[in-house]
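User: Structure tokens for both sequences below?

Assistant:
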Amino acid sequence: PTVYFQLWAKLVLRNDESSAVRHPAARSADVPPPEPTVRRELFGGAVSCDYPTRWIDVSDFRPVPDNQEVWTDADRDESVIFEVLERVEVGPSDADGAAVWFFDDLATINDASVASGLSAVETTRHLTAHELPSINGVFACASLCVGTSQISKGNDGVDKRNAVRVAMANVRLPEFGTDLLVTLNRAVTIAKGSSADAPRAGDGDDEVGAGDLILRVLQSLRIEDWGLFG
């Protein structure tokens, strides 16, 4: 069965030929500067990618399953989860983009299925090899789904559901019988009385969209050891 680490529900990157001075192009006021990143090794060095420096490794303070890497920014109640799953044969559609199926599957596990109206898909699309330049291998297809879910945190009741932006990317590796999932959970609004302690909840959503942030991570993703997938 598909197993997810429900962090949100459980918690909690010159010289001119002339003598003229070259000035950098002015940055649009609407485009924030890229946030600082650092190269991280995941799964014991089998995978590497660039992460925002503000994300910290959850395994430093709580157990994380061997098939997952979980990182978080507690001030924003934001988490990113890498998962290596046995390929799901029944359900996901490569033609439609499998990420949307995984989005609803996760929402259902969180008691917030799309059918119930507690989760909604905002955008879904396929990802191209050009968008995943550092995945140094062949993948069957890749897709991205972005939406929102109304989720209660920890033991909070259903009357304390928080609005969470969820961006989920799926890379299908049939040669290895594997689905690679990368999920970003970002609190947008915190319900009154929620146990969530996130003074900056929603800040990141105004700066860089969840889908854009996931794409930045994926563009740097490199498989260092394909033996990770068996």
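Moving on to the next sequence.
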Amino acid sequence: IIGSYHIPGESKEDVEEVMRSCGGAVQGIRDNGIYLNRADDGFVYFDCGTYSYGPTDLETKDDDPLVMASLAVPGERIYMEGEMEEDRSILGDLVFKYVKATPDTENVTLYSDAFEVEMGFAAPVSIDVLHQIYCEMPSSSSSWMLQRVKWEQEGDQQSKELLEKKPQGPYLGWMMASPQSDGFVDIRLGSICSVTGLTKEVVRSYSDDGKLMRVALKRGKIS
């Protein structure tokens, strides 16, 4: 994810590492002007460059209602930003595609439609999840603490690699709250390539009392 990205207006924006002041270790990143500290329990990141940020408690919202995701795809990423509402719905107010700057595209002018993501009101219902990585606390009664989560993976490496194809067309995105039958609510931020039908989605699952229980990165395909 670290690098320079084209943005509308013939300019670029960098995603930068933030180093510890007392040493050489990476403390976090700065993206779109927002500092994301790896010590923040609400900031969950994955090995492909995808990350998600949001409250660990929907009742207090950790004094910050911001919910974010950056979905990494080859050469691009989908950036989503919204706010949690009092009724546990999500209001999305910023979604666009970043195009990574390379030697071949460094001086290329990209027009506004190159950054557009068409937003739908809901995620497609026919997604086959073929690979997912998720983290959760070992006990459902434990308060969320990222350093203590248990990581699990479902699906094989070959499926994961096949689902990381370079996109071939426009994106459709979604940012939504999905209530579950057990009183839980899933906050879903995802996108689909309209040509390949490949999907990538971050799902933040909260209990009936608003506690963060699981964060998952799901890769799939429209069936």
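User: Anything stand out in the second?

Assistant: Residues 157-162 form the longest helix (6 residues).
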